[in-house]
Structure to design on (193 residues):
């Protein structure tokens, strides 16, 4: 091999190795800092309950925002989060039709989106979904309850994760209705009734 080819080979190998090392460090950083999205959502409050995030303008004074560092950054949206554990029971998500557009997304503990829907893709504009493990889904399908006939069943392969529920606030006059929608939303373990 000629000296120029060796030098080119060494430089290219070094650049590729440095780029690969850089990507690995960036992707693993949240695991070392404990500030990944799932950890921050867990810091907002108790599990199996939607917690409304404070608006960015209110977040500096709100102690909840300091705990998880999460806040609502878009003035045209109100956001609530709920973290869950499917170990004992599936999670039932319920909310009446909102005052305007709403969307819901389910994430696993690594912040990968598992499922999403909005008022346009739901039955009658209401949020009625069930998040369950594959085993729980099989059990539900064997003996479906009358209360679950309209529910959208979401299969979640892990045991933990979080849900983000958003509603639109097109004008300040919609803020109270949007907050009421998020306050009425249910994120709770499915009861055995």
């Amino acid at each position: 091999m000629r000296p120029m080819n060796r030098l080119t080979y060494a430089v290219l190998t070094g650049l590729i190795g440095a780029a690969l090392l850089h990507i690995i460090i960036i992707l693993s950083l949240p695991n070392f800092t404990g500030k990944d999205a799932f950890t921050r959502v867990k810091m907002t409050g108790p599990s199996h309950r939607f917690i409304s995030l404070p608006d960015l303008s209110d977040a500096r004074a709100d102690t909840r925002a300091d705990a998880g560092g999460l806040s609502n950054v878009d003035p045209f949206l109100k956001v609530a989060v709920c973290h869950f554990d499917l170990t004992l029971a599936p999670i039932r998500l319920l909310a009446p039709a909102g005052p305007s557009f709403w969307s819901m997304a389910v994430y696993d503990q690594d912040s990968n989106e598992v499922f999403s829907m909005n008022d346009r893709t739901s039955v009658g504009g209401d949020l009625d979904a069930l998040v369950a493990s594959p085993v729980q889904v099989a059990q539900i399908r064997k003996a479906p309850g009358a209360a679950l006939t309209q529910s959208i069943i979401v299969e979640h392969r892990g045991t933990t994760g979080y849900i983000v529920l958003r509603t639109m606030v097109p004008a300040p006059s919609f803020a109270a209705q949007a907050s009421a929608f998020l306050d009425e939303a249910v994120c709770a373990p499915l009861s055995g009734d």
